[in-house]
Amino acid sequence: MMQVQDRPLGRGPGPILEVRDLRVEFPTRRGVLTALDGVSFDIAPGEVLGVVGESGAGKSMTGAAIIGLLEPPGRIAGGEIRLNGRRIDNLPYEPMRRIRGREIGAIFQDPLTTLNPLYTVGRQLIETMQTHLDLSDREARQRAIGWLEMVGIPAAAQRVDSYPHEFSGGMRQRVVIALALCAEPKLIVADEPTTALDVSIQAQIIALLKRLAREKGTAMMLVTHDMGVIAETADRVAVMYAGRVAEIGPVRDVVKAPKHPYTDGLMASIPPLDRKVHHLAGIEGAMPRLSAIPRGCAFNPRCPHVFDRCRVERPELLDTGTTRAACWLYDPASEKQAPELFRHA
Amino acid sequence: MLAFVISRILQAIPVMLAVALISFAMFAYVGDPVSIMLGQDFTEAQRTQLIHDLGLDQSFLMQFATFIGNAVQGNFGLSYRLSRPVAELIAERAPATLELAFCAAALAMLIGVPMGVYTGLYRNSWLSRAFLTFSLVGVSLPTFLIGILLILIFSVWLGWLPSFGRGEVVQLGWWSTGFLTWSGIKALILPSVTLGMFQLTLIMRLVRAEMLEVLRTDYIKFARARGLGNRAVHFGHALKNTLVPVITIAGLQLGGIIAFAIVTETVFQWPGMGLLFIQSVSAADIPVMAAYLMLIALIFVTINLVVDLLYYLVDPRLRIGRGAAGGH
């Protein structure tokens, strides 16, 4: 059989987004830091890919690279990003600008700071739509009201002329979602869209995102460190560690039966709600700094199953049966093979 | 809105009273008006009569109240030096200073803001570096030195522009303007540049710093992520957000320009209020000094009020905040 695990689950012809061997570098005074190294994944039309990992694992950076807005001096130093088969990582500013908003929408973390405080939400919506779509002022205003209704803003026809500070955090994130979707992109990059919100609001926002993505057939890259959000929303999940993809596969398999020792540690560190625990499980040590990523597998100093090969050779994503994991335990040629102990069931 | 204006005006009253007290105190402590006005030969009866006429035998509070009452009506008495009403002297000189200040402020804003935006957007271009170097010169050279250097270059060496005075002026009612004659406009150039140079560099540096700050914010990144063009991002979203602090500083600077035109007016022998003030100081002409002090205070208070109102127009968050607070 063909390998299907790194292929998107979605329907339709090709993937909407293909990321291949993406490498992002930051030149600094003390040498070049590699923030992303060999990151590869696909997203199918209408599919939700969750991206998880600790802070600094490169989740947000991957999103920024896709929308072409890496903070300088960061730059894409290798690999490629394709949108609907068209290469976009090497586009000049102007063609890339026309893609942003129109073909790839973005949602940021903190709704309190993402909206310009000096303009009404209606103006910001109208301006975005008129940048990308050929709309008269009246049509654009009508659609702006329509979008506010769609994201669940009550009395949208009045609220369209309100300023961002007149909305609560959750309402503002709804406005941000409307702004990301209003030019009807086929892909949304959502960077921690619920992290800055109250827990009670988080579920509403996730439900809204999920519903809109389904209704509009929008694919989504959902960056978060919240496994609960991933489990609830994503079709597949990519686990990142030190700027690399550690494991990628269908969300059920990755959550229930992780194959990479890092994913295993990550899942084990989520405290169960159904029984009392006396110690919170964690992973020994800390993620390496970008300037000190060890040779071989980046996780090897913290890995309970480490063996000689891990310290020398860097593992590629290998088929594990259910997911694909960057771990030598799954290479039949390795002297050590995966133990059964990861199966949490 | 109206409540806000009224409350600001009420706040301004103590400020004006304090300045009035200082002005008033000058009469009592800087020289003795009676001996100044009597001259060399006088009798004791004349002296007593004058003290009585001037109201100097009344209590301090009564004198101060009279002073305030007169000041509110624009009556600051007679100049010791010129023996003419002070209000008339100042009204005569005000157009010259106000036109000069207006030109200097316009120059500072119209050149300073674009330069600040440019240096904020293109941080590493050679032109930005050139602007910044130039601004260091503007900030660090004293005004009188800039004025003298400009006179040396443009009046003495090149002979293009006059080195002193206002040129020909046209009377429009009580207002004398230099804008309507060619020589008047030529005469305005050097003093305006001299007076506006410091403000220009200050505004440029301020706009640059604010632009750099704003361009780092999330809403600018989000505006880019929505695919807005550079023009919309830079001028629609970024520049407007830099305006609040720029308005504050520009407003205070405008007051400063008017108040401290003294140096420039002296260098260029500009017949404005500043020159009048300097001449009054050397002659200990206290009524003029007192009136000038109060006028400048009034200008500062007014500008501050206007600046606060401009905040309202620029930043919607203040409208709501104040509105709600005013509603209680």
Automatic annotation (TrEMBL), chain B:
<comment type="similarity">
    <text>Belongs to the binding-protein-dependent transport system permease family.</text>
</comment>
<protein>
    <submittedName>
        <fullName>ABC transporter permease</fullName>
    </submittedName>
</protein>
<feature type="transmembrane region" description="Helical">
    <location>
        <begin position="130"/>
        <end position="160"/>
    </location>
</feature>
<dbReference type="Pfam" id="PF19300">
    <property type="entry name" value="BPD_transp_1_N"/>
</dbReference>
<dbReference type="InterPro" id="IPR000515">
    <property type="entry name" value="MetI-like"/>
</dbReference>
<dbReference type="InterPro" id="IPR035906">
    <property type="entry name" value="MetI-like_sf"/>
</dbReference>
<feature type="transmembrane region" description="Helical">
    <location>
        <begin position="98"/>
        <end position="118"/>
    </location>
</feature>
<feature type="transmembrane region" description="Helical">
    <location>
        <begin position="243"/>
        <end position="270"/>
    </location>
</feature>
<dbReference type="InterPro" id="IPR045621">
    <property type="entry name" value="BPD_transp_1_N"/>
</dbReference>
<feature type="transmembrane region" description="Helical">
    <location>
        <begin position="12"/>
        <end position="30"/>
    </location>
</feature>
<feature type="transmembrane region" description="Helical">
    <location>
        <begin position="290"/>
        <end position="314"/>
    </location>
</feature>
<keyword id="KW-0812">Transmembrane</keyword>
<feature type="transmembrane region" description="Helical">
    <location>
        <begin position="180"/>
        <end position="203"/>
    </location>
</feature>
<keyword id="KW-0813">Transport</keyword>
<dbReference type="GO" id="GO:0005886">
    <property type="term" value="C:plasma membrane"/>
</dbReference>
<dbReference type="Pfam" id="PF00528">
    <property type="entry name" value="BPD_transp_1"/>
</dbReference>
<keyword id="KW-0472">Membrane</keyword>
<keyword id="KW-1003">Cell membrane</keyword>
<dbReference type="GO" id="GO:0055085">
    <property type="term" value="P:transmembrane transport"/>
</dbReference>
<feature type="domain" description="ABC transmembrane type-1">
    <location>
        <begin position="94"/>
        <end position="311"/>
    </location>
</feature>
<keyword id="KW-1133">Transmembrane helix</keyword>
